[in-house]
Structure formats: structure tokens, C-alpha cells
Design brief:
The protein is mainly beta. It is 2% helix and 44% strand. It is built from 1 helix and 28 strands. The strands form 9 sheets. The chain has a 5-stranded antiparallel β-sheet, with no helix packed on it. A hairpin with a 2-residue loop joins strand 4 and strand 5. The longest helix is centred in the last third of the chain and has 8 residues.
Length: 329
């Protein structure tokens, strides 16, 4: 007599999946004989449950995102707690989310990697509680520390496992008056990050031409939003100038090294011309003698306010034309 055996199971919102001899199946045929109780069939439960979570950036916490700005592009890998083999990896998306299928019944742990950064697992009421922890050393003497989790089939809702990137670097900000690095006043630079640009920013105010600031080790946009002087009214001249030369908003990429962000403001230069052995007529027009070598000295100066010294380090080209439009070249 032939019997068809069908298997199925549902755990909350998860429909279990099965294999027979390595192939997907939900039923098998069995030939039965009278008084024969030795026949058996096997189904292997290969159901997976998504191991999910988010990765955030430390020191960017704010009202809309209590754990910080999401980190996109981080790799999260799931490993078997017993054999330490990889069970799969995922890359976080624009909201820092990842999902990796894990087989029911396994004990697993997650590892996050992004430019050799350091990550801590977050804890909280809505987050997945750990099953246990390992604090040991491997065969080479290197520390081995991680929390592991049992993948349970009857969990009504798999709680997330979230991580926080705690790596920091430095950004050197330079708001310079010309090549001579004159101090223009009090400068305000604003940092923003792409995954939370509309909800988070950090302002850095500095009164010298240069400052160094500690920041999370990521790629930020930084913009000069204001430059003011306590005794001289300069309005929004400097930000407008930087907008015109397309340097007002720049990238400060600290993902793997320190960053230097430099803005230069150049006022309209003042030119002075000194001509040796030249006559001057009533209109202060310089008259050069024919067929006589004449020395011309051109001085270009940038004048700054608030008692700052003038700057004579100015890059550019000077062309001298006569009244006929002829160049010296």
C-alpha cells in the first residue's frame, strides 16, 4: 500500500521550508507492508528567519534619530557560533538597514566592517537580547569577544540587532584671508551627513583662521555659513564670495584618514605701478622714452580689516598694454 506523507508548519508569520535528499519538497511517498514498522522517511527543515538590524553613527544622535544618523555601505556578516563559518553577509542601505537569512536553531553572531572602524552592539527594550557571550583568545592570542543569539522559530517577531560606529577622526578647518592666512573674524562651519541631511547638523565656531575638530570618521559635507567681525561690519561678503568661486560647500572625508578643508577669501587686489626714469605730464600719464630700457615695478596687495596685515602673496598674471593696445610680450 502506498502512503503520501505531507509536512507543513507555520510559526507566527513564517512558513517553514523543507528539503528531501537536498531538494525542496513538502511531501514523500512511502510503500507500506503489513506488520513492517521499519520504514521511515525524513524531511529536513531548512527554514530561515531574517536576522535584521540597523547600523548608526555615534555623536550624531538627535530628536528624530535617537541612535544617530544611519550608516550606509557597512558590511554585516553572520557567523555560526560553533564552527565560526560565514552564513552570509549584507550591505546596509541608505537607512542603515540590513537583513541576513539565518537557519532556525542555529546560534549566530554578527560582525560589522567598514574601513576598519570599531562597532558596539546597542542594547534596549526593543532590541534582540543576547543568548550568551564569548570573551576569550584565539590560537594566535588575539582577543575574541562577541555576543551570540539563538535563532528561534517561534518568535512572533524577530527583534533587530543594531550597532553603533564609535570611530573618530579629526578635521582641520581653515578659513583663510588670502594665501597669507589672515584671520577674517569669527567663522561658523556647518557639518551635515547624507543619510540625515534634513534632520541633523553640527556647527563649529572658530575665531582663528584655523581650527581642529574631532568628528565621527565619516564623509561629511561642511559649509561656511557665516563669517563676522566684532568691530567691522562685513555682512555676508565672505560666504557670497565662496559661493561665487564654488568652494563654499566642501567634502570632509574622514572615513580612513584625517581631513583638511580650506576656504580662501580674496578681496579685490590693489595694484601699484612704479616706473623708473619716466616723465609725468599734467594728467599723471606715464610717458616712456623710446628705445630706452625702462624698469616697471608692479606691486599687488590684498587689504584686510580688523588690524590684519596686508598680503602680498597673490597668484595671477599681469599684462601691461600701451594706449595702442600693444602688450609688452
Amino acid at each position: 500500500e502506498e502512503m503520501i506523507v505531507t509536512v507543513s508548519k507555520q510559526s507566527a508569520h513564517i512558513d517553514h521550508e523543507y528539503e528531501c535528499d537536498g531538494q525542496p519538497c513538502t511531501q514523500r511517498r512511502l510503500l507500506l507492508k503489513a506488520l513492517d514498522f521499519t520504514r521511515s522517511i525524513e524531511f529536513t527543515d531548512v527554514s530561515t528567519i531574517p536576522f535584521v538590524g540597523n547600523v548608526y553613527i555615534d555623536s550624531t544622535q538627535h530628536a528624530e534619530m535617537q541612535y544617530g544618523c544611519p550608516l550606509a555601505g557597512a558590511q554585516v556578516c553572520l557567523k555560526d557560533h560553533i564552527h565560526h563559518t560565514s552564513l552570509g553577509c549584507a550591505i546596509t542601505d541608505s537607512v542603515g538597514y540590513y537583513a541576513i537569512p539565518a537557519a532556525v536553531g542555529l546560534s549566530v553572531y554578527a560582525q560589522v566592517s567598514f574601513n576598519n572602524h570599531t562597532f558596539d552592539r546597542l542594547t534596549g527594550d526593543y532590541l534582540r537580547p543576547k543568548t550568551g557571550s564569548v570573551d576569550s583568545v584565539d590560537s594566535s592570542g588575539a582577543a575574541v569577544q562577541y555576543d551570540y543569539f539563538l535563532i528561534e522559530e517561534d518568535a512572533e517577531q524577530q527583534q533587530p540587532t543594531d550597532f553603533l560606529d564609535r570611530s573618530f577622526s579629526t578635521a582641520t578647518l581653515q578659513m583663510a584671508g588670502g594665501k597669507c592666512n589672515r584671520t577674517l573674524g569669527s567663522s561658523t562651519a556647518r557639518f551635515t551627513y547624507s543619510t540625515c541631511a534634513s534632520t541633523w547638523s553640527k556647527d563649529v565656531v572658530f575665531t582663528d583662521w584655523e581650527t581642529i575638530v574631532d568628528m565621527p570618521a565619516h564623509n561629511f559635507e561642511v559649509e561656511i555659513v557665516d563669517v563676522s567681525h566684532p568691530s567691522v561690519e562685513i555682512g555676508d561678503m565672505v560666504p557670497k564670495y565662496l559661493t561665487a568661486v564654488r568652494t563654499r560647500v566642501q567634502s570632509a572625508d574622514m572615513t580612513s584618514q584625517t581631513a583638511i578643508v580650506r576656504w580662501e577669501f580674496h578681496p579685490e587686489p590693489v595694484l601699484e605701478l612704479d616706473v623708473a626714469r619716466a616723465g609725468v605730464n599734467d594728467c599723471d600719464t606715464i610717458v616712456l622714452a623710446r628705445e630706452v630700457e625702462t624698469d616697471l615695478t608692479v606691486t599687488v596687495v590684498e587689504n584686510f580689516w580688523g588690524g590684519q596685515q596686508d598680503c602680498t602673496w597673490i597668484e595671477g598674471n599681469i599684462t601691461i598694454l600701451n594706449q595702442l593696445g600693444e602688450s609688452t610680450r
